[in-house]
Amino acid sequence: MQITKLAFGLLLIAIVQPNRAAHADELVRFDSAVAKPSPFLERKAKEQGVSLPQAAQATHLLGYLSRPEGDGPFPAVVVMHGCGGIQPNTKTYWPQRLTSWGYVVLVVDSFTTRNIDNTCERYLPDRVFDAYGALDFLSTYPFVDARRVGLMGFSVGGIATLEATKAEGSEQFMDRKFKAAVGYYPVCAPHEGDATVPTLILNGELDDWSPAERCRQRVSHLSGKGPPIELNVYPGAYHDFDSPYVAVAKTAFGHREEYNATAAEQSFGSVRAFLNKYLSK
Q1: Both ends of the chain: CA-CA distance in Å?
Q2: Residue 151 CB neighbour total at 10 angstroms
């Protein structure tokens, strides 16, 4: 088959120039964010005799980008996986669900470039900066409305989500901010208190890995002056209750994981309504 000069030229352009109109489940590369305290915060910290977090080096990351049909600009959701890494629930089921609701989705792979298998027995605090790096990256696309980006995390990814949006946390060092946060079965810090954005937390009543009681305690410590934090606890539900990937109950690191269709469907409705409320125009 012959290739005309025009066709060859178009092919060359496509190869050389980055594809900014990302297709569903496109593999993308970006860097984690780096904390850069403002001069005001540096001066305030010096006056108070406290230390600000040291700026870490940016980490090269991988991600999976999906988008609805159309030109946009669309609201978007950054998705943070659990301690076992990328699984079908975060790479396939949730991106399909969110794009059908009209959101661009970027699933962050925090492990591959770090050569990490899992973090189920330790916590990786750098994931907060992965989330903000993903936000910065999404903001470069013309089909994304950078003013309407939410953060969603599962299990340990849920912890990172809550850490990234807690009052007086790393958010204060970032130029761009998330608009809302959703945490599926995170381990809550009971005395953490307020968040910087409206937050939805979803827990299973029987979850022995991410106890709902810790999240109840956090909600009880809210000042009443910050954005709302909504907690939904589903009776009879265990860890990973939203994931058909664990339709048959299993034990991981001594904890039970099991899909619960009733709780899952109820949670999907809550998440959709929550995102529509806070990420709509």
Answers
A1: 49
A2: 30
Strands annotated E in the chain: 26-31, 60-66, 74-80, 104-109, 144-154, 180-184, 199-204, 229-234, 250-252, 255-257
pLDDT of residue 226: 93
8-state DSSP, 261: H
Q: Is the pLDDT of residue 5 over 70?
A: no
CB-CB neighbours of 129 under 10 Å: 25
Average pLDDT, the chain: 87
132 and 170 in contact (C-beta within 8 Å)?
yes
Helix, strand or coil, per DSSP, at residue 30? strand
Structure tokens at 159: 């912890």
Q: Residue 179: pLDDT above 70? A: yes
Enter the pTM of the model. Answer: 0.85
Return the number of other C-beta atoms located less than 10 Å from residue 50's C-beta. Answer: 8
* 10-62 confidence digits (pLDDT tens): 333 333 333 444 555 799 999 999 876 655 556 666 666 766 555 557 899 99
CA-to-CA distance for 106 and 143, rounded, in angstroms? 13
In the numeric block, which tokens belong to residue 192?
């953490």
On whether the CB atoms of residues 79 and 95 are closer than 8 A, the answer is yes
Rg over CA atoms, the chain: 20
Asked whether the beta carbons of 129 and 34 are under 8 A apart, the reply is: yes
Nearest of 180, 173, 120, 185 to residue 149 by alpha carbon: 180
Range name among 38-42, 250-254, 265-269 with the lowest pLDDT average: 38-42
The long-range contacts involving 113-116, CB below 8 angstroms and separated by at least 24 positions, are 113/59, 113/60, 113/61, 113/62, 114/59, 116/85
What pLDDT shows up at residue 116?
93
Coil/strand/helix, residue 179: coil
Can you tell me the distance from the alpha carbon of 204 to that of 21, in angstroms, rounded to the nearest whole number?
A: 38
